[in-house]
Amino acid sequence: MTEEEHKELHEAGVPHKHEHTSTKAVLNRLSRAIGHLEHVRQMVEDGEDCSAVLIQLAAVRSALTSTSRVILKDHIDHCIVDAVEEGNLQAIEDLEKAIDQFMK
């Protein structure tokens, strides 16, 4: 999709797929976090020490937070910059709502 086509979809309010520079990195990070979380599940099933489980859960949470930062940066660098250029204040409001939900 060309940049012009992308802008037309935005202006028309048509839902569409976004292509981001970090998609592959985000998918890799999520796959690692899923694998790590599955390991934590196995630790619980095996009755491993609660302290060890909590430490591993903290590592999973940290991995997800790190992944969220990558997504947020990519969103700001691309979607929000485009929205500001187009005068689309709704995109900024949507981002604010998403950040509020993320921070809960």
Write up this protein.
82% of the residues lie in helices and 0% in strands. The mean pLDDT is 88. The two termini are 36 Å apart. It has helices at 3-12, 23-45, 50-86, 89-103. It is mainly α. It contains 4 helices and no strands.
Keyword list:
single chain, 104 residues, elongated
Q: Report the helical percentage.
A: over 70%
> N- to C-terminal separation?
36 Å
* Average pLDDT metric: 88
Rg over C-alpha atoms, rounded to the nearest angstrom:
18 Å
Please write out the topology:
Blueprint (H helix, E strand, L loop, with lengths): L2 H10 L10 H23 L4 H37 L2 H15 L1
Helix pairs in contact: 2-3, 3-4
Write a brief structural summary.
With 104 residues, the chain is mostly helical. It is built from four helices and no strands. The model has no long low-confidence stretch (mean pLDDT 88).
